[in-house]
Hints:
- There is one protein chain.
- This protein has 3 helices and 7 strands, in the order βαββββαβαβ.
- It has a domain of 63 residues.
- β2 and β3 form a beta hairpin.
- The strands form 2 sheets. Strands 2, 3, 4, 5 and 6 form a 5-stranded mixed beta sheet that branches. The chain has a two-stranded parallel ribbon with strand order 1-7.
- The C terminus is likely disordered.
- By secondary structure, it is of the alpha/beta class.
Amino acid sequence: MNSGENGKTAGRFYRKRVELFRLLDRIKLWPSRKGILHGIRSVETIGGAARITTHCNKTFLVRNSRNSRAARQLRNKMFVKPCEACRIPGWKLEKYSATLFRRRFGSFLTTSNAMPQA
């Protein structure tokens, strides 16, 4: 997905208010409370919650919320540094930094291509 001439990654657009689980399935990154960005190994959905396992073998349970701390930090790209144990590759960080979240433009991250009724 390079733009060709300048070698920068093309921007991706996602809706700003998508569900947290759909966003985690697509981005595969998790911001900790200390501001460290972890890579996600697996997401197991359990009703309205999910069990997230990171590459550094940390496991925790999160609820599906659009305005949670983690969802806001992912949308606003607020993190101090990537986790050294997770070893997130540079291309993934560049792709994440080029991702844009817009209110009225971008993918809904739905399983089907149909537009939801508004």
